[in-house]
């Protein structure tokens, strides 16, 4: 019998957030060790529960959710999403501009499959959420990573973007607020990114899933606001993070800009939407209630709220470790600290993370797993309560002390 091997399409695809390091963590768990998993922004294991109104609405609509829905999404959900953007200045947003998906992840894959031809280049930030890089590659495209500048609050390096645009560049991905860095881009930065797209005839793909998780005076600016009628902008968002329902898989993409120039692409997106029948119907009933109801996330991001206070604590504790620096996150649920190569001459950050896991039973993700260029960063999820977070970073500090010694 012939050997069964994976498709060649997967040769340049990696997703280290749930990769070989997680396999090692599972092996250790099977041996009886308790692993603190700080590798995934999954809210439920850390005591964050969905708002009761969202759960109640899903339960109420279950009897009517047994059949397939419109492949683009149920009408009430798409209406709620359209009205959400109308209220934020995008007044021309219509119901038919919205596609509902099984989370943003599915929609990213669908959009890129409908958009990318073999060899097309897509600009992706570094560091990035690695699904973007993997999905571009899997679609036959070439991800080209533009540098975000750590010395400038992890804002995109506009000159680096311009230098990497070629005649084969078709789109630019903007992740704002950023995963893994927690950066929230200023109005000036978002305008500049859209202007680059305008000058070079690029599609903007704006991943804004963390748009409601902002700290202090940070303000989120929708890329679509500045795209106007002459830049096609695909805005991705959903309920997973702000409404603490990661498992519901309720996300959307909103299309704005010159759609008359994108009818062929949109036909392809509709084809792919039809092929998967529809998104999870019960979760779609949560969208209208979530967007229109009381925004409990504001309690979590304000003074004394868990999202904010745990982010601040993690940032402060990491900064107290010799040879570790961290740009203060202004949003999202992560810290992305840097290990000074002069203090920690690490050749492989993946090996570092595995050693940390084995020694201290803490699971984090290495920076190159987010397509960062050097092996000198790792990402830490800030979702545990303050006591657990303090213990976890204390163990990381102990491990780093052994490396310094």
TrEMBL record:
GO terms for molecular function: transaminase activity. SUPFAM superfamilies: PLP-dependent transferases. It comes from the Bacteria. It is an enzyme of class 2 (transferase). Gene3D superfamilies: Aspartate Aminotransferase, domain 1, Type I PLP-dependent aspartate aminotransferase-like (Major domain). InterPro entries: Ala_Aminotransferase, Aminotransferase_I/II_large, PyrdxlP-dep_Trfase, PyrdxlP-dep_Trfase_major, PyrdxlP-dep_Trfase_small. Coiled coil: none annotated. Its cofactor is pyridoxal 5'-phosphate. Its EC number is 2.6.1.2. Transmembrane segments: none annotated. Keywords: Aminotransferase, Pyridoxal phosphate, Transferase. Pfam families: Aminotran_1_2. Residues 35-396 form the Aminotransferase class I/classII large domain. The keyword Membrane does not apply. PANTHER family: GLUTAMATE-PYRUVATE AMINOTRANSFERASE ALAA (PTHR43488:SF2). Belongs to the class-I pyridoxal-phosphate-dependent aminotransferase family. This is alanine transaminase.
């Amino acid at each position: 019998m012939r050997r069964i091997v994976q498709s060649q399409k997967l040769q340049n695809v990696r997703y280290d957030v749930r990769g070989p390091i997680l396999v090692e963590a599972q092996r250790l768990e099977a041996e009886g060790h308790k692993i603190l998993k700080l590798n995934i922004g999954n809210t439920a294991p850390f005591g964050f529960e969905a708002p009761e109104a969202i759960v109640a609405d899903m339960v109420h609509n279950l009897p009517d959710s047994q059949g397939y829905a419109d492949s683009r999404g149920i009408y009430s959900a798409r209406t709620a999403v359209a009205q959400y953007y109308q209220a934020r200045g995008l007044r021309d947003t219509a119901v038919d501009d919205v596609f509902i998906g099984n989370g943003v992840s599915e929609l990213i894959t669908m959009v890129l499959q409908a958009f990318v031809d073999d060899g097309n280049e897509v600009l992706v930030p570094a560091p990035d959420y690695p699904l973007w890089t993997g999905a571009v590659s899997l679609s036959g495209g070439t991800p080209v990573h533009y540098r975000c500048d750590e010395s400038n609050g992890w804002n995109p390096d506009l000159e680096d973007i311009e230098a990497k645009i070629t005649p084969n560049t078709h789109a630019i991905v903007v992740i704002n607020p950023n995963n893994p860095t927690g950066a929230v881009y200023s109005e000036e930065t978002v305008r500049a990114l859209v202007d680059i797209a305008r000058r070079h005839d690029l599609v903007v793909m704006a991943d804004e899933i963390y748009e409601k998780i902002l700290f202090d005076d940070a303000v989120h600016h929708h890329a679509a606001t500045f795209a106007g009628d002459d830049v096609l902008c695909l805005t991705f968002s959903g309920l997973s993070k702000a409404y603490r329902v990661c498992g519901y898989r309720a996300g959307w993409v909103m299309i704005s800009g010159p759609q008359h120039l994108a009818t062929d692409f949109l036909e392809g997106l509709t084809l792919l939407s039809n092929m998967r029948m529809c998104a999870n119907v019960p979760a779609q009933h949560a969208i209208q209630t979530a967007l229109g109801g009381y925004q409990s996330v504001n309690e979590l991001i304000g003074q004394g709220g868990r999202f904010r206070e745990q982010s601040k604590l993690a940032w402060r504790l990491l900064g107290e470790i010799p040879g570790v620096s961290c740009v203060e996150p202004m949003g999202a649920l992560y810290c992305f600290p840097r290990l000074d190569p002069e203090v920690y001459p690490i050749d492989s950050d993946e090996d570092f993370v595995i050693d940390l896991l084995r020694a201290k039973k803490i699971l984090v993700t290495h920076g190159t797993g987010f397509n960062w260029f050097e092996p000198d960063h790792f990402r830490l999820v800030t979702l545990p309560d303050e006591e657990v977070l303090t213990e976890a970073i204390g163990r990381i500090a102990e491990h780093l002390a052994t490396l310094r010694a």
